[in-house]
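Recall that a protein's primary structure is simply its ordered list of amino acids. Everything else, from secondary elements to tertiary packing, is in principle encoded there. The following example makes that idea concrete.
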Amino acid sequence: MSFVALSHPINQLMLHSLSIITITYNNPEEIISTYKSLKEFRNAGGTHIIINGGETIKELIDNDCVLLEEPDKGIYDALNKGINQVNTTFFMLIHSGDILVERTENLEALLNKMSKEEVDFLLNDCSIEFGDKKRMMKSSKWKPWMFMLGAQPPHPPILYRTRAVSSFQYDVNHPIIADFKYLEDLFQSDLKWTKGYMMLIHMSAGGVTSSGLKSFLYVNKQFLKLKGPFKTTLFAIARPFIKVYQML
């Protein structure tokens, strides 16, 4: 299943209903890459919120986005700050170094789908640098029962209805797996979700949960605190296989 690009001009009012949040910390080259990839989105009426916890980047960007610069307590504290800045009907997250690769018209089609079907959050696809290749992470190959094996859907390309998820926050007590807990909480609620089957984001390599053996062990350590020894052992065995399956 896929969407066909809309034939009419970009609906400015529809894109006014979306905010994209980007968090950054002392990585100027990455934030510039992300910022440039969102130029069409901003020009079409979308709101770009940048949360910067490091050295100022005011001289690197124009006055066409919302910029909050102040110290934070890490990734998930910064994400919570970004969500608190949202004044639009929908939002999504594109981290520093990642880029929006889908056409703005098709992003609008997803928003129309969410509005028409009254969807609270919408899963989509992304690509990720994997060695010297680019791999797809497909939401079509993910099912909610996979949470029991420690596997979450591709989370960066998810679109959220702001009001529906306003009572949920990233738990800063879980410094590397708060996104897993956040999504697990959403799926355990009575919120309505579906899949958009659209490749929205390309993710750069080297994220905090995908940087080799050291990050793998750190993730398992955090899962141990969250889920206990039995589930953590199960997660450690099953999660890598599910990730490979999603990339096939």
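Residues 1-10 have pLDDT under 50 and may be disordered. The chain has one domain: 12-247.
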